[in-house]
């Protein structure tokens, strides 16, 4: 078992940096991959917002270069492609590789006291599979008729050959399938590693909550990615071979025999757990970060774990809340409404535990802590607005309006992103042996959270005022033209938000190669990864440690006055 | 820990899958009471013809996105058109008197337009050359933007065109209703104008595409013409939008409307197709005929007319608009109405009035129609009062 | 206190400045860009169940608003009071005592009842009484409309004065629907090609329109006027142009209109043009 012996060090450039089996290298590969795609997705978002605020105006600076045939102006088909690929990229190629690929890989073996993942080759394959998926997705942008234009949800029959005739949509399905395959590989790896390779003394009750969250994320990945995989296979067959899984028997003429609603069911049976896949790692980071920087145990460890498990279990049975207006039977609709409200309870429990962790702590407001508190803020805001959408009475009006866009950006994008920034700034010293600039980090934080809150709260107002989403131009319909001022304000804020991310890019790149050297344990945290020297040797632990103490024993009375933390390998005095 | 999760989740997923395939009373599949099937049709009063094999049975498969060969289509034959082009782009055009044994013609430096000698006719004709690159771009944009209604083969019967009246244009017919040209075919500028403006009240929306995209699409559409027809017809005439510059009634709108009413009911007898907007008594007065003359039945309603446009080879009939009720397709300002009336609506019972009526009268009619639209369209109470007053005396 | 003042002064000033800058620039830009009125929120509903949406929305907002303010306070207090400083220690509490678990349970139950259950009950009432209470076909005075959605416009068919679908006097229109005030308007809808959604914002009505299937919905208008029809499900590149006009007429005007429209439809009817005929028998 890979926990016992130390395998020989890789020597060639390829085996060290390209086809490495070392989870730490793979983590960094995922990280750079995710960051680059996050940037591309972000630029797409800027273009979308530009078009909405200034319909028909050429996109400044990059417009003429990207879209010469339309003189730098977005045409409606390209616009649809942009928001589709923005969603696909941010979710599948940005956040997933970053949170689950990068931090799953980095944190799990180090935090549980293992030398590597239990299946290192599978680990390496999972990166290159997502890389291949990304290549296919990128390629789909350049085929005739362009990439997928049917939204990241890509409902049938718009996504079948009835609505989209080129290869872009087919390639998109292939890309999503490959990315999904990568996630399944990673999920199997993580789950098995956590179950089998925990160091002696590392009981389930002593696991850092990051690891718990990643474990549950992997469970969801393994269970539900196959569902989207099957949806993509069926869509691929419909498009490439001419089957009719999703093409209906038209009322007017016969033929087909499939059901477009089947696609929606398949998609959302995956899709709802997917949003929990995206948020659970962030929840895990936040639980730990709050404890680490409040110098207090994570309040209600078991309750938090129970809440995350409950959310995991319930995540599959709430998916119908995305389909309230499709014509589901009333009984089914009301059941989903009830279940969606029930699933909010464990999330609320987790939330209270966070607040209670802060309460009467000794708060070190370093940059990672700011991000963790930022998650509490945006997730609180976003989660509370979920109530409007869970309630069918309000969802009927708000469905497919900007209200939904505001809601999921706050809960999914902002919360996951803030969790990611927290994780990045927290683990940066151990990953790269250098410190990121704290002042720039704080500027980045405030420059992100303020415009972001502004933009997405404005979207609640837009949605309430009846502005539908996925519209190329809101001035076409007279009734919506009165809302254009909101579009302009949101775009200004969004551009500002985008600009502040450059602060992070600068900080990250500069610190990565030219930052000041970091101490071994700058945050004074007791988890096993911080007991490692920097840089972490390829075999991690020379001797597998024995764990005696929990991960959150901060300010334990037995520790006395000189320190408020204890490494997990030490026994608590007395 | 792990087994309980599986034992709970797996059955739960199966249960969800089973539940989600159950569909409640709200949305029963329509198989039991579908659209009039062939049998229903035979039983009901109004149909004897059975709908043929359904065209949109399956989703489209392997739609072709490339054009393999260069092509060419006819360009305007009118020398004046080239003269105007040379004024717009002076560096590009030059006139050669000795071209083609003294016939003389314009030379396009870019090689897009070309005067080609035809041996059989012993005459040179202007053609526009279309490269396969341009046609491929045009084909791809056409599939992307137009094919859902106009069909992948340009026959006007795309999936979204089913049961649609008025039907989308069948481009192989090479005939257009609202391009406002007096010649048989519209110039590129006229076509682009139409696409950008759209047709009010129909699914032909104003399309927000760039000039380059529209140019490519329009050149591609021309290639739908069968050999020797439409844009491949040697003798076809192509022209720009009919000129409507000199409005003689500016400042005298009221007089224009009065004159228009007379032209509408007397000189042009528009009431033959469109509604007559006067009582029969007043009509006789306007026309200088005996009081008590009977005009057509349902004078204040339009009369259904034949057209040359076909949907699945059936020539559809078109109802001329009642201006107080139906949306005018190609614009409602007097200028736009002038253009439509003067050019006529090709392929329908609406003739070309340029030449048949003096321009001043066409303008007056345009003003009159514009008056009807602004006074009554979208104002149901006012309109019914007006129409009822007309009908009281019938 | 002094610490509080410094904290508030620098951070809050920065944020306030950012927000003010954003708002001002946006408003200034928008004022010059659009000559239309700047609308915030919705106008009065025009349907008899329309009030339910705004009532429920603001009720939820009240609950959610109070909760969020509470959360903000619970974040702010530790951030201000418990900041790390020499000599200050965190209070050691795992939060795993029985007492803590009991408190958590109680708070969760109360939160669920207050935020969710209450709202759930109201919503179920709304659904059963209004949104999903589609009138029966044989109900008195129901005005039936068949909707055939396509890329990218709406086709509406009403039975005309003979009250039967599939006859020569059926009133057909593209993207314009005329309905009477004060009578329930019942929709049966399908699509020719992709999924659309009929959205009548002033009536607070929305329902997906799926190909190969018939969906139903309804509303009853409370006042006459011109209203908007929008599409609310991505249906292709011209999804944003798939709007129409809903005209609600007073009863007399409507009856007159319907007579005239039926007569015009009869005039336009061509019995041999079978391809153009698309009605279905009204589903019970």
Care to give the gist of this entry?
The complex is a heterotrimer of chains A (574), B (394) and C (284). Chain B is mainly α and 394 residues long.
Mean pLDDT of chain A: 93
Q: Give the class of chain A from helix and strand content and strand pairing.
A: mainly alpha
- Could you tell me the CATH topology label of chain A: Cytochrome C Oxidase, Chain A
Overall geometry of chain C comes to elongated
The number of helical elements of chain A comes to 16
Query: What is the strand arrangement across the widest sheet of chain C?
Result: 3-2-1-5-8
Structural domain tally of chain A: 1
Distance between the termini of chain A: 36 Å
Reported for the largest beta sheet of chain C, the result is:
5 strands, mixed
Rg over alpha carbons of chain C: 27 Å
Oligomer type: heterotrimer
- Biggest interface: A-C, 121 and 107 residues
Q: What is the residue-averaged pLDDT of chain C?
A: 87
What report would you give on this structure?
The complex is a heterotrimer of chains A (574), B (394) and C (284). Helices cover 63% and strands 0% of the residues of chain A. Chain A is mainly alpha-helical. Chain A has a single domain, classed as Cytochrome c oxidase-like, subunit I domain (Cytochrome C Oxidase, Chain A, Up-down Bundle). In chain A, α2 runs antiparallel to α4. With 394 residues, chain B is mainly alpha-helical. Chain B contains 13 helices and nine strands. In chain B, the strands form four sheets. Chain B has a three-stranded antiparallel beta sheet. In chain B, strands 2-3 form a two-stranded antiparallel ribbon. Chain B has a two-stranded parallel ribbon with strand order 6-7. Chain C has 284 residues and is an alpha+beta fold. In chain C, strands 3-2-1-5-8 form a five-stranded mixed beta sheet. A five-stranded mixed beta sheet of chain C has the order 4-10-9-6-7. In chain C, a hairpin with a 2-residue loop joins β1 and β2. The model of chain C has no long low-confidence stretch (mean pLDDT 87). At the A-C interface, α4, α8, α9, α10 and α11 of A face α1, α2, α3, β7 and β9 of C.
């Amino acid at each position: 078992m890979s926990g016992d012996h130390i395998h020989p060090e890789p020597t060639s450039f390829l085996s060290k940096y390209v086809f490495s089996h070392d989870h730490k290298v793979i983590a960094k590969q995922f990280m750079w991959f995710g960051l680059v795609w996050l940037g591309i997705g972000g630029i797409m978002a800027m273009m979308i917002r530009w078009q909405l605020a200034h319909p028909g105006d050429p996109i400044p600076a990059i417009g003429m270069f990207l879209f010469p045939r339309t003189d730098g102006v977005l045409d409606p088909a390209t616009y649809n492609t942009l928001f589709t690929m923005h969603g696909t990229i941010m979710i599948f190629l940005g956040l997933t590789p970053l949170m689950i690929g990068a931090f799953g890989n980095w944190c799990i073996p180090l935090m549980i006291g293992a030398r590597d993942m239990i299946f290192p080759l599978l680990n390496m394959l999972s990166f290159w599979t997502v890389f291949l998926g990304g290549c296919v997705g990128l390629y789909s942008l350049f085929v005739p008729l362009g990439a997928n234009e049917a939204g990241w949800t890509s409902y049938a029959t718009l996504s079948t050959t009835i609505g989209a005739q080129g290869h872009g949509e087919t390639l998109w399905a292939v890309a999503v399938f490959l990315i999904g395959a990568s996630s399944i590989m990673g999920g199997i790896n993580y789950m098995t590693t956590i179950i089998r390779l925990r160091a002696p003394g590392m009981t389930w009750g002593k696991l850092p909550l990051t690891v718990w969250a990643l474990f549950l994320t992997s469970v969801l990945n393994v269970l539900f990615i196959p569902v989207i995989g099957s949806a993509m296979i069926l869509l691929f067959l419909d498009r490439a071979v001419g089957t009719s899984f999703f093409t209906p028997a038209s009322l007017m003429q016969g033929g087909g025999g499939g059901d477009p609603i089947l696609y929606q069911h398949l998609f959302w049976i995956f899709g709802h757990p997917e949003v929990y896949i995206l948020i659970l790692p962030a929840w895990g980071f936040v639980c730990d970060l709050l404890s680490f920087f409040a110098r207090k145990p994570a309040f209600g460890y078991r309750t938090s774990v129970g809440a995350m498990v409950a959310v995991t279990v319930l995540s599959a049975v709430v998916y119908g809340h995305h389909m309230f207006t499709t014509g589901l039977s009333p009984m089914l609709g009301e059941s989903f409404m009830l279940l969606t409200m029930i699933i909010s309870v464990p999330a609320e429990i987790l939330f209270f535990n966070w607040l209670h962790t802060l309460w009467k702590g000794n708060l070190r407001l370093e940059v990672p802590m700011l991000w963790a508190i930022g998650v509490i803020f945006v997730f609180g805001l976003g989660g509370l607005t979920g109530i409007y959408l869970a309630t069918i009475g309000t969802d009927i009006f708000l469905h497919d309006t900007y209200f939904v866009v505001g809601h999921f950006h706050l809960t999914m994008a902002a919360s996951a992103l803030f969790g990611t920034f927290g994780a990045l700034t927290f683990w940066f010293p151990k990953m790269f042996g250098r410190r990121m600039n704290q002042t720039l980090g704080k500027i980045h934080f405030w420059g992100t959270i303020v415009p972001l809150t502004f933009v997405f709260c404005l979207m609640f107002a837009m949605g309430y005022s009846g502005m539908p989403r996925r519209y190329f131009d809101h001035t076409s319909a007279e009734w919506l033209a009165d809302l254009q001022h909101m579009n302009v304000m949101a775009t200004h804020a969004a551009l500002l938000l985008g600009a502040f991310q450059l602060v992070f890019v600068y900080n990250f790149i500069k610190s990565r190669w030219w930052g000041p050297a970091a101490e071994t344990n700058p945050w004074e945290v007791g988890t096993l990864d911080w007991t490692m020297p920097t840089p972490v040797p390829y075999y991690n632990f020379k001797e597998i440690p024995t764990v005696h103490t929990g991960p959150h024993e901060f300010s334990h009375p037995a520790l006395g006055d000189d320190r408020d933390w204890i490494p997990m390998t030490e026994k608590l005095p007395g | 820990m792990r087994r309980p999760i599986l034992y709970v989740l797996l059955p739960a997923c199966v249960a969800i899958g089973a539940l989600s395939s159950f569909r409640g009373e709200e949305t029963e599949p329509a198989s039991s009471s579908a659209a009039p099937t062939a049998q229903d049709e035979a039983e009901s009063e109004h149909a004897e013809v059975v709908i043929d094999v359904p065209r949109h049975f399956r989703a489209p498969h392997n739609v072709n996105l490339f054009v393999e060969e260069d092509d060419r289509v006819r360009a305007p034959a009118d020398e004046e058109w080239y003269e105007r082009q040379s004024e717009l782009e002076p560096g590009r055009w030059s006139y050669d008197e000795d071209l083609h044994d003294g016939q003389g013609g314009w030379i396009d430096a870019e090689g897009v337009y070309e005067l080609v000698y035809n041996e059989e006719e012993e005459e040179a004709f202007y053609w526009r050359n279309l490269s396969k690159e341009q046609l491929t771009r045009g084909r791809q944009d056409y599939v992307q933007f137009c094919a859902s209604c106009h069909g992948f083969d340009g026959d006007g019967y795309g999936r979204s065109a089913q049961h649609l009246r008025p039907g989308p244009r069948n481009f192989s017919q090479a005939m257009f209703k609202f391009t406002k040209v007096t010649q048989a075919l519209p110039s590129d500028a006229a076509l682009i104008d139409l696409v950008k403006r759209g047709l009010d009240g129909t699914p032909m929306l104003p399309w927000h595409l760039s000039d380059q995209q529209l140019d490519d699409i329009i050149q591609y559409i021309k290639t739908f013409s069968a050999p020797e027809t439409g844009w491949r017809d040697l003798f076809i005439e192509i022209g720009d939008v009919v000129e409507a510059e000199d409005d003689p009634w500016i400042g005298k709108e009221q007089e224009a409307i009065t004159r228009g009413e007379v032209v509408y009911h007397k000189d042009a007898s528009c009431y033959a197709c469109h509604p007559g907007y006067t009582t029969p008594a007043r009509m006789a007065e306007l026309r200088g005929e005996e009081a008590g003359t009977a005009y057509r039945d349902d004078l204040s309603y339009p009369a259904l007319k034949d057209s040359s446009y076909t949907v699945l080879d059936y020539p559809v009939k078109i109802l001329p608009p009642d201006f107080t009720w139906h949306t005018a397709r190609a614009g409602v300002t007097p200028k736009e109405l002038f253009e439509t009336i003067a050019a006529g609506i090709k392929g329908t019972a609406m003739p070309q009035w340029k030449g048949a009526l003096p321009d001043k009268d066409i303008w007056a009619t345009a003003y009159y129609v514009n008056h009807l639209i602004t006074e009554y369209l979208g104002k149901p109470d006012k309109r019914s009062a007006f129409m009822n007053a007309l009908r009281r005396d019938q | 206190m002094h610490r509080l003042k410094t904290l508030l002064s620098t951070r809050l000033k920065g944020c306030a400045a950012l927000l003010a800058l954003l708002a001002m620039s946006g408003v200034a830009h928008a004022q010059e860009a659009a000559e239309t009125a700047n609308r915030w929120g919705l106008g009065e509903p025009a349907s008899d169940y329309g009030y339910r949406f705004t009532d429920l929305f603001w009720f939820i907002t009240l609950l959610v608003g109070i909760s969020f303010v509470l959360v903000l306070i619970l974040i702010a207090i530790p951030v201000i009071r418990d900041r790390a400083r020499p000599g200050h220690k965190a209070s050691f509490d795992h939060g795993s005592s029985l007492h803590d678990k009991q408190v958590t349970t109680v708070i969760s139950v109360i939160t669920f009842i207050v935020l969710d259950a209450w709202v759930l009950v109201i919503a179920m009432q709304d659904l059963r009484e209004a949104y999903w209470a589609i009138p029966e076909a044989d109900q008195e005075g129901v005005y039936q409309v068949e909707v055939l959605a396509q890329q990218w416009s709406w086709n509406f068919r009403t039975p005309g004065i003979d009250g039967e679908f599939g006859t020569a006097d059926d009133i057909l229109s593209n993207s314009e629907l005329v309905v009477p005030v004060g009578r329930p308007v019942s929709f049966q809808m399908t699509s020719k090609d992709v999924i659309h959604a009929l959205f009548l914002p002033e009536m607070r009505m929305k329902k997906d329109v799926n190909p190969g299937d018939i969906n139903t919905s309804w509303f009853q208008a409370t006042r006459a006027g011109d209203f908007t029809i929008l599409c609310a499900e991505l249906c292709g590149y011209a999804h944003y142009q798939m709007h129409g006009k809903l005209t609600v007429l007073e009863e007399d005007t409507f009856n007159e209109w319907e007579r005239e429209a039926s007569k015009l439809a009869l005039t336009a009817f061509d019995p041999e043009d079978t391809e153009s005929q698309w009605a279905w028998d009204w589903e019970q």
